[in-house]
Amino acid sequence: MATITMKFGGTSVGSPEAIQNVVTIVSESAQRGDKVVVVVSAMSGATDALITSVNEAAAGNKWAYLSTAQKLRDRHEEIVNLFTPPGKDRERTVQDVHAILAQHTELCQAVNILGEATSRISDAVVSFGERMSARVIAAALRANGVNAQAFDATNLIVTDDRFGGASVLWAETEQRIRERLLPVLEEGVVPVVTGFIGGTRQGHVTTLGRGGSDYSGAIFAAYTGSDELIIWTDVDGVMTTDPRVDKRAQVLPYISYQEVGELAFYGAKVLHPKTVQPILNLGTPLRVRNTFNPRHPGTLIGRDPEPSATVIKAVTAIRKVSLLTVSGKGMMGVPGIAGRTFLSTAQAGANILMISQASSEQNFCFVVLDDKANEAKHAIETELAAEIARGDVDGVDVLGDVAVVTVVGAGMRGTPGVSGRVFTAMGDNLVNVIAIAQGASECSISFVVSEDNLKSAVVTLHDLALEAVSA
Ligand code: ASP
Ligand code: MG
Which pTM was predicted? Predict the structure, then answer.
């Protein structure tokens, strides 16, 4: 008898058709005798709507949050009415949804009166999406004969109090999940747990960052000792590239934890970048599958690099980034400038996606998201004001309209000539490479090109990945 954790994303719980598939998938697995842990996202669009509702409330707009509550009520009630027969369970589930939305309205009212939303209140408000979907999905499963029960992860995943992107406190989380979820599983109950959210030791609701329910799925898989984690989504698996950029994109049958981690970090939307972290040491097999095409086997993700060394596995890109360059003749041999630069960038709230320094030490550059570029520039120039005044540092130059292109493949490690092929291909296609970085893991190469060259760069490199698939 296997224990399987299944996480269903927003689109998988976002419509009656999708939920019908969820019910079938979970019921079949439970009937086979598996112990199933279900982890759910909010219905598609719900998290965005909740975030907008708090922001609008803070800006003085009452209408927005009232209308959001109304729409969310309609969507969840529709599901309850379609999947749960008239009776006690239906009534109780509808009441739960109403109670959650009443809290939403109360919190938004408070925000509206105060004229500002703290990140703690925002987290409480956005958590309502997952809380509602867990209850509605559990009821739909019960109506189909599955002994399901909804759980809030607020007292299962223990986090610090960095609201909006909290960090998991592992030992306490492990203990809670073992104590509170394992006995339930033993009794034959299918827990339907909220993804995306956790709680502080004091019991305040936190969130794990946007898209974080994949990560939740992996946390539950790890501490329930699951034999497999399945991320059910709306595509057939992890692809060789974004099909919107190149229609020839194919589903990868297998990819390693490390490769998928690089892909997720560098812009592939299929998994939250932290997903593999909780299962890394356990080696739990992770599968990405399509709720809307359940016959497709999906992509298997595991600990081992693939035995057949396909060199380039996949190509991905991040748009809407800026390249920041710090330069100055007086920087050579002066320790600490890079450190202070990165620290002030972090303090400005900008995440660094890629770093590159040439050996002349007269400049180094790094990439951040567009919307943080100017804040980061100001923070760095303030930090280095003395060096700038002395003329040792010229300042920070911001280049916009660029993109980071990343090729991923564990087979690059120890295979000479891969970067040669990559950059020759760029040259042949008149793509100007602005900056380059290769991770020490040698599992990916990233470089910066102008937005205009992005498509051509991705398609050309994807040719190399497809060669590898067919080889
Ligand atoms: N509902 C959350 C979000 O939209 C978490 C998730 O779906 O993974 O970000
Ligand atoms: Mg997601």
Answer: 0.92
